[in-house]
Amino acid sequence: MTTDVVRVSVPRASGGHDLRAIKVVLHREMLRFANDRTRIVSSLVQPVLWLFVMGTGLGTLVRGSIPGVDFRTFMYPGMISMTVIMTAMFSAGSIVWDREFGFLREMLVAPVSRGAIVIGKCLGGAVVACLQGVIILALAGLVGVPYSPMLILTLLGEMFLAAFTITAFGVTLAARMRNMQSFFGVMQMAIMPMMFLSGAMFPLANLPSWLHVLTTVNPLTYAVDPMRRAVFGHLAVPPRVDAMLNPGVSWFGHRLSVPLELGLVAAIGAALLGVAVLQFRRTD
Amino acid sequence: MNTAVEVRGLRKNYGEVEAVKGVGFEVAPGEVFGFLGPNGAGKTTTISMLCTLVTPTGGTAHVAGYDVVKQRDEVRRNIGLVFQDPTLDGYLTAEQNLRFHAELYGVPKEVLGDRMRQVLEMVGLWDRKDSKVMTFSGGMKRRLEIARGLLHSPRVLFLDEPTVGLDPQTRSAIWGYIDKLRHSEDITIFMTTHYMDEAEYCDRIAIIDHGEIVVIDSPEALKASVGKDRVQIQTGDDERAIGLLKERFGVDAAVREGQVTFAVASGEEFVPRLFAGLGVPIRSVSVSRPSLDDVFMSYTGSTIRDAESSGAGNQWMRARAMRGR
Question: What residues does the ABC transporter domain cover (chain B) (predicted)?
C-alpha cells in the first residue's frame, strides 16, 4: 500500500478546468434525465392534453372565424414552448433538491468558479428541455405542420435559447429556496401567468389594452412569438387569418423582427445568469 | 509548509451569538488532530471556516499554507471534506459520483482510473462501483464519501463527525481506514468528534466548549493531567451524600448523569472507607481510570453528555453554518 499510491496533483484554476466543470455538471443533468422516465412522460402529459383536448375542443368553437387553419396548428408552437418551459423549470428546481440532499455542497466547495456550475446547470436545463421538445416536434404531422428540416432546426435553436433563459430564471428563484414545495409553489405562481400572457394559448391580436400591455411586458412572449412565426412561415395561411393568429409583437405600432425578439430573450437570459451567479457567490 | 493548519484568533458571530470566540492552534503536517466538544460548542462552525464555507468574523486561518479568505480556491484544491450529512447523488452510481468529483477538481485523466480504483479498494467498495448510491447503507455512503474526499490527494482531510450515526462495526472500519491513510498517504487529518473513545485515536486533541478552546494536548498527556480516578455512586439520598462527602472526606461531589460523581486519587482504596464512613445507604459504586470524559469534565466542569443536553439549543447554529454555501 505504501509504495503504489497514485498521486494526483490538482491543477491551478484555468479556463480549461472551468470548461471541464461545466461539462460534468451538464453531463450529470443528462444522466439524471435519462434515468428518470417518469419525468419524461409526466412533463409531456400537460402539453399533449392542451394540444389535443383543449385544442380540439376550442377548435370546433372558433373554426368559423379562422378558415383554413386548424386551431391546434395555432396552439402547436405554444405547446412546444410550454413543454420547454416546464422541463427547464424542473431542471432548475433540481438545485433545491440538490441542496436538500446535500449534493449542492459537494459542488460549491469545489475549486471551480460558481459561474461554471451555474452555466453547466443552465446548459443542462436547455439540452434536456430540447430533448423533451423533440418529442413534441415529432407530433408536428398530427396538427398539420410540415416536417421541414429548416423549420425543425429553427425551432430547435429557438427552443434551446428559451430553455436556457427559463433555466436561468429558475436557478435564480431556486438559489434562495430551502425546499421543493416552496419552489414549486413559487414556480406555479410565476409560470402560470407568464404562460397565459405569452400567446401560447390564444392569439395576442385585438386584446383589450390592459391585457395587451401585460403581454408586451411578459418576457415569455418574445420566446413564443419567434416559434409561431417559424411555424406559420411554413404554412399557407390566408393573410387575414395570419394577421389574426400570428400578429407578432409590436412596440408603439412597430412590429419587432425575429432577431430582435431572440436578442431580447438572450439578453434576459444573460442577465438572469449573472444574477444567479451572484447569488451563489454570497457566503454566510 | 511548516504547518498544515494555522489558526489565529478566529471568530464567528451570528448576529448577537458568538459561535466561535477567538480560537488559535496549529496542526503539523501528518498529524491527526481532533476537535472534541459537545454539539453546539462551535466545532462545525470552525471546520466550516477552515473549509472556506463560512467567512470568519475575525482572525486568520491558513490551511495547507493558504489563507482561507483570500486564497479560497487554493485552499479548496488542497483539502478533502467529509461532512456529517451525506453529499452524494443517490441517483448516480458510486463511480459516477467519483467521476463528477474528479472533473470538478480537475484530476488528470491519465491517473484517474488508477486513483479511483485505489480509493475505492481502500474503503472496500470497488466491487460496488456500478451500483447506484441510493442502494447503499449509511456506512457504505460514509465510506464512499471518504474515498471521494481522498480522490484528489488532498493535503488536509477534514472529517466532520465521520462516524456519527454509524454502527460500531462500521465505526471501527472507518478508524481502520484513517489509520491506514496516515501511513500510506502524505496527509494531515483534521476531525471533529463528540465521542470520547474516538478522540483517543488522535495525536492531539483540542477540547472546545462554548466557542473557546479549553486545552490542547495529546490524549495521554490530558489523561495524566487529571491524575485522579472517577467514582460514581448511587445512594438512597444524593443530597445528604454530597454533604457528608464534603464534611467527612473533604471531597467535592456533584450529581452527573444521575449519579453522585467525584474524583479521588486512588479510587479502589477509597471505596472501603466510603462504605464504612458515609452513613448513607449506597446501592452501587463504580470506579474508573481517568478517561477523556474526566479530562473533559475537569476542564469544563461538566460531562460531555450533560453539556450536550444543555447545549441543544445551539443546533440552529450548526444548521446555519452548514447551509450549503
Answer: 5-235
B103 within 8 A of A21, measured Cβ to Cβ: yes
Nearest-CB residue to A8 (from B76, B108, B325)? B108
Which one of A12, A26, A28, A109 makes the best mutation probe of the B interface by having the most chain B beta carbons within 10 Å? A109
The answer to whether residues B153 and B20 belong to one domain is: yes
Among the partner residues B51, B92, B114, nearest to A109 by beta-carbon distance: B51
Nearest Cα neighbor of A195 from A89, A124, A122 is: A89
Distance in angstroms (rounded) separating the CA atoms of residues B299 and B319: 27
What is the CATH number for B18? 3.40.50.300
pLDDT in tens, B211-225: 899 999 998 888 777
Residues B261 and B176 occupy one common structural domain = no
List the grid coordinates of B271. Answer: 471505596
Q: Kindly state whether residue B176 falls inside one of the protein's structural domains.
A: yes
Residue A13 lies in a domain: no
For the segment A254-276, the average pLDDT, to the nearest whole number, is 94
Q: C-alpha grid cell for residue A263?
A: 436578442
Residue A17: closest CA among chain B residues belongs to which residue? B106
Contact assignment for B106 to A101 by CB distance below 8 Å: no
ipTM here: 0.84
Query: Do A273 and A122 touch, CB atoms closer than 8 A?
Result: yes
B92 touches chain A (CB under 8 A): yes
What is the per-residue pLDDT for A2? Answer: 40
Residue-range definition of the domain harbouring residue B276: 228-288
Please tell me chain A's helix, strand, coil percentages from 3-state DSSP, rounded to the nearest 5.
75, 0, 25
Tally the domains of chain A.
Answer: 1
Distance in angstroms (rounded) separating the CA atoms of residues B66 and B33: 19
* Cβ contact, residue pair B106, A17, below 8 Å: yes
- Whether residue B118 and residue A9 make contact (CB cut-off 8 A), yes or no, is no
Chain B residue nearest residue A108, CA to CA: B325
Question: Both ends of chain B: CA-CA distance in Å?
Answer: 28
B141-190 per-position pLDDT tens digit = 999 999 999 999 999 999 988 888 788 888 888 888 888 888 888 899 99
